Amino acid sequence: MNRRSFLKTTSAAAGAIAIGSTLAEVAQAQTAESRPAFRRPKVILPVPTPQAKYQRAQPGVPDTQLTREATGLLHEFSTPLLFNHSHRAFFWANELGRQSGQRYDQELLFICAAFHDMGLLKKFSSADDRFEVDSANAVRQFLEHHNVPATRIQVAWDAISLHTTPGIAAYKPLEVELLYNGVAFDVLGIGYEHVTEDLRKKIVAQYPRVNFKQDIAKAFLGGFEHKTQTTEATCNEDICSHFIRNYKRSNFYEQIQNSPFQNS
To answer: Which PANTHER family would you find in this protein's record (predicted)?
Structure first.
């Protein structure tokens, strides 16, 4: 090896070591336990306190200040469609939780069900985030206002942000999985056979499914029609494909092929 090659090799090695050292220093300075677990949205959409006259938990729901206010928010700012859907999702999830034989946070489960579709409403809808994230950010703000411990808040945030994402909830705290399954039960009928006919009839009688299949799809569209890019690679994209004429989704394979990197 001549001197020039040696210098080139050692310079490259020194550069790699320097880069590696820098990255190691950055990684060491930013370990997870040294920073907050949550990164706040750029724009905070305020969650108001509902009027006292709306703060009344429904029969069968844990009766606490948190559940009363969550119910009040549904009464005052949501729609009859989402009010009924959120309650049914809770009761399905609660029944599946009972069947599991495991202990879970019933109060938090209801709050998750109450907030899980809030991001579909204009009042709580951001310009750039998925509606699930808008809903999760709303519940975080609500729970922080009531000084709920951070660990409970994170469970609620995860449950709501992941409630349309398959394959993950089963590895999260039980409340996350129960919300996912309760919503899937109500919207898609998944697990229908695991709840008795008597209980199904009782819950639907109390919280009717009037034209639900068509109206929930329209509610989804209304929640993200102004930001269809947030639905890409999610189940919500199917709503856009159905309702929006000439809707064109991005193609992951094409994105890979069009990367600016050389194919080396």
So the answer is: CYANAMIDE HYDRATASE DDI2-RELATED
Residue 23: the pLDDT is: 58
Lowest-confidence region among 114-118, 125-129, 223-227, 250-254: 250-254
Distance, CA of 178 to CA of 94 (rounded, Å): 7
pLDDT digits (tens, 9 = 90+) for 166-175: 999 999 999 9
Q: Which domains does the chain have, with CATH numbers?
A: 54-192+202-210 (1.10.3210)
The pLDDT score that the predictor gives to residue 7 is 46
How large is the average pLDDT for residues 214-239? Answer: 97
Mean pLDDT across 140-149 = 98
Amino acid at 75: H
Q: Which residues contact 77 (CB under 8 A, 6 or more apart)?
A: 48, 50, 118, 121, 123, 124
